[in-house]
Fold CAP domain-containing protein.
Amino acid sequence: MKLSIFLATSGAVLAAATPILRGRRLFVETKVVVDFVTVTVTEGVTPTMFGNRRPSPKPAVVSSSPVAPAAPTTPPVVVVPEPTPEPKVEPTPEPTTAAPVVVPSPVAKAPEAPAAAPVVEAPKIQEAAAQAPSGDDYQSTALYHHNVHRANHSVPAVTWSQTYADYAATVAKSCDFKHDLSPGGGGYGQNIAMYAGTNAADDNASHAASGGIGDGWYNGELHIFPSQDYGKPNPDMKDFEAWGHFSQMVWKGTQQIGCATQFCPKGTNLSKAMDGWYTVCNYFPAGNMGGGYGENVLPPLGQPTVLGH
């Protein structure tokens, strides 16, 4: 039995300095107008609302005074007159005062809380299920192992870019396990992976790539990403080196990828003791942009695990 050692490491993710996508916000302004009617009530006057004012009629004051008897015009006859009845004194009526009409001031109604802005659900993207690659077609393999996992996060499938694949091939041929964005002048994201073993020479590029992409970058890092930070513009970054490949893979704003996998015999910078394979994938637009995680790294749907190997 051959002794085999499997090494899998993944490099950190480089990203451009500016956010790729900016979120849109919806503001709802609600204006509440409250009309106040001020009513002043004065005794004896019927209050009126503001409008065409008409003078209120003053209440008529009705009063009576006792009437004196008329003086006699003939010489007095000694007659015992009947006692003159005392005039009846009508009581002076109280001035008629209109009862004040009290119009309560309208109660200022507390403005109703504005209705919550309607929740606008983003249209669900109906993506065709990622098709498993047939045979050892490298391009199909790389696309499949990206898109099958992107679908689990409700984001669109990426397409192949030969330009970025050529940049990746330039880096992979160096067999030097480190990030290099110099081909093409940068401006894209990059994931790297390698494995080495005593029987690595018997493997092929497609198989090596599927292991790095599916098992290393996705299945190996999905559960390290802080799940409580889905939806936040910036998650806790202390373990970024451990989950940054995963977040680049499923970054919603990324539209194109280009990958290459190079066989590196033992003695190279990749591995001094064993043969190995070096996989490089480039991403455009780049992911892992500060402030954009909430919109671009969405929680998983819980679909069945898809293994790379």
